[in-house]
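Bug report

Summary: structure tokens for ABC transporter permease differ between web form and batch submission.
Environment: batch mode, default settings.
Steps: 1) Submit the sequence below via batch. 2) Compare with the web form result.

Sequence submitted:
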Amino acid sequence: MRLLILSINALLKFRAYTVLNVVGLAVSLACVLTIARYIHQENTVNHCFPDYDRICLVKSIISNGECSLGGYRSGLEDDPAVEEFTAYTSVSDLMLVFGKQKVQSRVFSIDSTFFKMFPYKVLMGSNRIRRPGDVVITRSFWEEVLQGRPVVGGSFTNGQGRKFTIIGVVDAPATKTSWQPQMFMSDEIDAFLLYSPTYALRMVPGYDLKALNQKHGKEVPRNKWATYQTLRYEYLPLSELYFDADLERDNPMYRFGNPGYISVLTAVAFLMGLIGLLNFVNIYTVIMSRRSREFGIKKVFGAGKAAIFVQIYVENMFLAGFALLLCWTILEVTRYLFYNELYIPVTSDVRFDLLASAIVLWGLPLLTTVYPYLKFTRSLPVNSIRAITTSRVSVRSRMVFLGVQYVLTIFIISVSLFFVKQLDYMLHADLGFRTHDIINATMYHNPLGLYKDSKENLLDEGKRQQINRELVNRRMAESTLFEYWNRSSNILLDGGRLENFALERAENGFHQALVTSMTRRTMDMYGLQLVEGRLWNDSVDEALSRNSFKVIINETAKRVLGVKDITREKLQPEDVHFASSWMPDFFNPPCEIVGVIKDFNVRHLAKATMPMVIYYDSEIKWGLYAVTAAYRHEDRARVIRFLSDLYEEATGRTDFEYTLIEDVLAKMYEDDRRVVRIYTLFAGVAILISLLGLLAIALFDISQRRREIGLRKVNGAQARDIYPLLLRKYLAVLGVSALVSVPLSWLAITLYLQGFAHKAPLTPGLFVVAVLVTALLSLLTVMWQVHRAAHVNPAEVIKRE
């Protein structure tokens, strides 16, 4: 108890330094713990399920590079290494009717084994689906869509009036999961058979994943019509599903992690933790320097090294405890900032939070005690007693700590500034096609659901589609608001599909390309530039006929595939074209190359421009569900209002939806925006922590030189002579830190850009700005202390000293 009281009194005696130390450590810990909790959450996705480390899904891999979850007819579930398996079907857009409310829902169709392998806690009712009409909903769907009203025993219908009964509500799993269904239905519903199920398998303990994938890794034809395209299956551990880089990222039923984003956050957490640790040790050694006489006298009177270590450790533990309390306060206050601005959502994990707090409270003081302990136990007692009475106390070690903080701070600022520059470069780069004032608007919804319908309903649906198509086409043609329009279902930036092509014949080797279909009006709307040959001609070219084996390629495809003469050479697709249905035995002939267009980028600019192959499309004949149109910028509001009215006239519905090409482009770079916001925020925090350490050192350093300043002023020194004397040391530290930090920053940015195909130029001005910002803020922090010291009354100083 006496030791505790002594430690508290010692810290309170130097309140200013203690407050600076606690605040700096608390801010650093808040940053580190926020990121650590998020990384822990991302690394424990799906860990809520028993035997998660023994559960595998079946992944299908097509030779063109496309990957998906499946397993139907793969035979992998029959392997002796499989202990148990379940099959579920996912549907992401099932339209259901709750009274007068229509809801588009994410549904899993499951068998009786699913909840045994993936148990969900039952909140009310039951999760045992016995009849085809039984449904289990999730807590989030119950609260967000059904407003938490009593639902067990309640019913709803699908688009055709089929009745379903809610038999239970299940809670969210204890950890984040890869999938996010809103309800579970029976697998006995016939129409779910139209969808390919996904297999989840519980493996026997100690299974050899590598050996099993080698055993089942044989390439087989994708289907009975495939001429060249092959397919293989492999086991994908559930623990690896979240970060699997091959699966489609746009599937609304699943969510995937970003390993690059985690790496960025890990680097930020390390830097922030290191800055905070150095700042803590630096300020605490200032406190120890003020107490050197105290420790010297203790050693004279026989205090051993163990006693000194315990006292320093207890004091550090108190400081860590106060900082931890302030840290958790900051975390609670800034929770919504981190979620909304930085998208670092964290689900509370009490066990992890307690473990992290224990490490900070008991483990951190061990690290921060080592340097002060060694520093003050190695010096002789007489030196410790004498050091406080002299004006030339060595601050070299503290300047080294401050210099390292400056190095890290300049590093973070430099990286942050470059990320801003790179993002601006990508957002304003010329992508090779029109990226403004284009809208994609929904014009039709199919009211038929998954379930079987009568022949009469299907005929009626065909008539409704024809009426809608004619009405929308007529209204769009009559309007003067649009420069171009077509019945495309998506915006060009939405991508396409991956397929393989070979020059002339398969023996020449297949190369991956991005494939899409376009009309001539689509190409004109986006301003695609012809380099060689011709564009599509509606009077000559046809879709889905024997005359459809024609393509237009970009410059990259011409170079990668080795095309020399487009008038003589053809491209052999690996997969059969839709028009092959018109050919005997789904014959897959080579495609004529009718034109070459200038390269354009529809993917993130970190990726290289891909070879692109474009088939002919006829949206006037087939287009139905959406309209894509280009307009004048000043007409945007009128265009949206016109399309909304047209949608209501054509469908009788008011749930109009549209997408602007600017929004699609912004979404593509959302991760980059988050990285910029993260580095910008934490660069500011790093500066704050470093300035707190600088302030503590300046307070101590200037207080030790008051007598020297007084004597200089007595001998005629002016304030302009005192300023350089006191600032020289800090400017020297900053200069050396800049010389170290700039090459490190340049190296880190260069390594980061190795995976980027399109890069912003790395110029010296970026590093100059980082150094100037750090220097300016540091000078402002020190100047008010220097100003006070330079204008002090020398008589009072000499009298007091």
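Above is the batch result. After comparison, the two runs are identical; trailing whitespace caused the diff. The chain is about 50% helix and 15% strand. Residues 388-393 have pLDDT under 50 and may be disordered.
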